[in-house]
Design brief:
By secondary structure, this protein is an alpha+beta fold. Helix content is 17%, strand content 27%. It has one domain. It starts with 7 loop residues before the first strand and ends with a strand.
């Protein structure tokens, strides 16, 4: 949905890079802010589904940041290859 932001639960091994601001994906790709990414997963609003891939604090933060009409969080499947798209 254009103009809607979804918080993301990234796969294990993902890290943050300050300059330039972006996410370093487990495979080494860097997704700068605004970059489209591709990977297996889905959008979930059920607390139990989100907690299955993160801890309580992560779940609370993700749900607090969900701004779409359905209060969904983007979750990449554990072990999914996530890639930055050009």
């Amino acid at each position: 949905m254009p103009g809607v932001r979804y918080p993301a639960v990234w796969p294990h091994g993902t890290s943050w890079q300050d300059e330039p601001a972006g996410v370093v994906l487990p495979g080494g790709d860097v997704a700068l802010l605004g970059t489209w990414v591709s990977g297996g997963g889905g959008y979930h609003s059920e607390r139990s589904r989100i907690e299955s891939v993160t801890n309580h604090e992560g779940t609370e933060l993700a749900l607090r940041c969900a701004e779409d009409p359905y209060r969904e969080v983007a979750i990449f499947n554990p072990g999914s290859r996530v890639e930055a798209l050009d």
